[in-house]
Amino acid sequence: MFKNDAQGCNLIRAVSILSKANLLATVIRVYCVFHSVQQGAIKQLSWDGQQRDSSVV
Question: Given this model, what pLDDT does residue 32 score?
């Protein structure tokens, strides 16, 4: 009986760890996408500014 209880606890721990790892992976993916979009926006603003500066001359 104790062996089954221990196996059940190990299974619960494993599922908990996997779900936390999955959540962490999702958070990392969202951060990477956000960071990529943010960098793209910064580059676009920088490029727009350079075009405006060159058109003024």
Answer: 92
User: What are the tens digits of pLDDT across the range 27-51?
Assistant: 999 999 999 998 888 888 887 766 6
Per-residue HEC secondary structure of 12-41 comes to HHHHHHHHHHHHHHHHHHHHHHHHHHHHHH
Whether 12 shows a pLDDT value over 70: the answer reads yes
Distance CA 42, CA 5 (A): 55
Please state the domain count of the chain. 1
The radius of gyration of the chain from alpha carbons, rounded to an integer in Å, stands at: 25
